[in-house]
Amino acid sequence: MKKDRNLTEGNITASLWLFALPLMLGNVLQQLYNLVDTWVVGHYIGDRALAAVGSSYTLMTFITSIIIGLCLGTGAFISMAWGAKEEGKIRNGIFLSFVLIGIITLLLMAGLYLCVNPLIRLLQVPEETAGDMKEYLVYVFAGFFLTFLYNYFANILRSIGNSVIPLAFLGVSVVLNIFFDIYLVRDLHMGIRGAAVATVIAQHISGILILLYFLKNYPQYRVRKEDMTWNRENIRQIFSLSGFTCLQQSVMNFGILVVQGIVNSFGTTVMAAFAVAVKIDTIAYMPAGDFGNAFSFFVAQNFGAGKKERIQEGIRQSTISVVLFCAAISAIVCLAARPLMQIFVTEGCEELIRVGVQYLRTEGACYVGIGILFVLYGYYRAVNLPFLSVVLTVISLGTRVLLAYVLSSIPAVGVFGIWIAIPIGWFLADAYGIGYYWRKMKNQ
Question: What pTM was estimated for this model as a whole?
Fold first, then answer.
């Protein structure tokens, strides 16, 4: 059954939230892939394996962000064409973008297998953890093409107003992932390899199911022979939207990867604490990112339909929504930081919990900053100015990395310097993005 939503009509706030909620739930479910691995590994294998999975999570988030960025850019292209009611352009866009991103994904997989050892060294992973991390990554890389398949068709469906079906398929695969995680690690004693294999099985299921659903339920968007043309204007627009969005996503997550390297230099305890806390942190603020993506689809559809006044009102209502939402999430994370850490860490690891709580309360107090940044990313991508999202990310990343290195090197500040550098970067990028909008965009 189709669940398409037309974002060019009706109440803006209600339409945005009804469209965004499945995205939010879907991203939470997607994060559960690695969270379940973390919980199972932490409880049934040990701290060393937990640190390995945690560092792998940061690396995989960065690598996956490349594909997600390309798919988000394609989604913006399809949304604009959908708003303009150009079915032929949609089919040609699907053909061009699928070939492009599919090739990039295969090349990336080959590169990952060739460079797995240098990547582990780059992350400054302690020697006692490196072997476990390599074993985990070698298996997880096998599911990377299906990760592309799911994210590609999920974004195609969302671009034409269907955010419910991607959530449904992802939910099924997450449930299976939990089952296989426990079965392979606890019952079959496969260790860290079992956690990786469970994740790969789940990725294959969600990727294949969403492909079959799209082919069956959207025959008007199946690529035909006449759609397999290399339209230069469509290629240029797809390259611009996908390329800059990919760059923005990957640069943003590269900053996390660099921070992971600094964190690893503080030893296994801090490394394991960060591994757990960053997952909780990501799940806490990621709904704001999904709202920003929903807002992007809203703007892109209305941009294609030529409804500028609706876009302006959408900006106002979306900003209010995201500020209120992030303030509520901040309060929850700051108050519940310790119980949240204790979900994933066994009793007796008091120093590990202390470090994780410090991280969560530092980041959690500042979620409004990243919430506004996500809205800015979505807006600039949807109005064909994706390069500005890259500029904002570079500002945020540059501040984060520079301050993390400088502050953490001061003995009196230590690892807290890494934590505080992150929200400072968010707020500086917000200031630039809002300033640019008021100077250049509002009067156009």
Answer: 0.80
